[in-house]
Amino acid sequence: MEIIPAILPKDFAELEEKVEMVKGMVNLVQVDICDGKFTPKPCWPYKKQDDNFEAILREERGLPYWEDVDYEMDLMIADPETELENWVLAGAKRLIIHYEALKGSGKIADRMEAIIATLLGRVEIGLAINIDTPVDDIAPYIHDIDVVQCMGIDKIGFQGQDFNPQVIEKVRELKERFPEKTISVDGSVSIEDAGILRDAGADRLIVGSAIFDNGNVVDAFQKFENI
Hints:
Strand order of the largest sheet: 1-2-3-4-5-6-7-8
CATH architecture: Alpha-Beta Barrel
Helix content: 25-40%
Distance between the termini: 9 Å
CATH superfamily: Aldolase class I
CATH topology: TIM Barrel
């Protein structure tokens, strides 16, 4: 089971600081990208205009430690279609789209088709779903995406929430129906939950607070790896 550190950066400096903490231990990090529309509060780079992000888009610089670490961007934004090209240009290896973000306007099927057409063959595609979203809703797209990310919390865009154990059954159902598909769990995953999620069929755990707020990042990460 793969452990992916999750970063919810308030600014570019925090992104740099936290990536530096885990580089050398991991090949990939997940960065939570919140626009303040789909989520209650924005984070980098939507919190305010950011010269570093503009420089990345102009290809004048890269994401922090991009030569050592790959990036998975968890796009918690209301209109992901409008931002896909920017994040491809920024150098993301994988983009996570939230299924629930597509309910705002237009037909979900049409929006998913457009997203897949834009990204297929360019970056890996992940589709995140909330606990109460039926698996049947995402079944039509399952063969065009690389990862299903199950959210283990009730409120998207906040770290440090209580883990909702209902996600365990969601993981089990997905793995039984689509055994070849990579299943991630994101949201308040603790050491105590990790083994249960692995046994339910999770292939990847996205872990933020339990690693970075532990006081010893290396020790916390290794404990998860040893599950």
